[in-house]
Amino acid sequence: xxxxxxxxxxxxxxxxxxxxxxxxxxxxxxxxxxxxxxxxxxxxxxxxxxxxxxxxxxxxxxxxxxxxxxxxxxxxxxxxxxxxxxxxxxxxxxxxxxxxxxxxxxxxxxxxxxxxxxxxxxxxxxxxxxxxxxxxxxxxxxxxxxxxxxxxxxxxxxxxxxxxxxxxxxxxxxxxxxxxxxxxxxxxxxxxxxxxxxxxxxxxxxxxxxxxxxxxxxxxxxxxxxxxxxxxxxxxxxxxxxxxxx
Length: 246
Known about the structure:
By secondary structure, this protein is an all-alpha fold. The chain has helices spanning 10-22, 35-47, 59-67, 71-83, 87-105, 113-125, 134-153, 156-163, 211-218, and strands at 183-184, 189-190.
């Protein structure tokens, strides 16, 4: 019965997806009657990325960090692993986690952190390879929710630094996206930019023996401007560093 457990109409999901891919403006989601079509669109978008949001390369590292029995060490390893994500992946993950935290805080959604972890574990954590063996799928299914639960347990302030959410209540109904970094194919132009950045663009948090130093280092904003953009939309106009669909 939860918000992300019920499926929306396939036709509506497909129509919304096409609008995001082909339009220069954000669809007015407040006019969509079926909330489950919107949640279905988000899950479809994440599920159809070329690789999971947490990437193939860091899949095992995230799982190992989530499984550390000592909470402080587990959190410290999680911060370090998040810092190793390509910046667009990290920023999109931050936007998503902040959203899911709000979902979990609302009784109306009927989705607590445990439920959300089970729904989004396979989607954003995924596997370490594109075509895993059946045994690996079985093992990963048990570990994926642990990663999401740990991500959702990290403080709001940590995630907010990556999305620069200064106007939480902003009206996005008529927001125009000026995406200078959109990608083109022979058949279409999309407002959704590539997800994974080159390795040389990665920024790593310096290692430290103390969790507090890790936090202080990690909480340094990455953006060069604190312009009052809408939630999740950096000043350059990208759709919160949106991932590239297949």
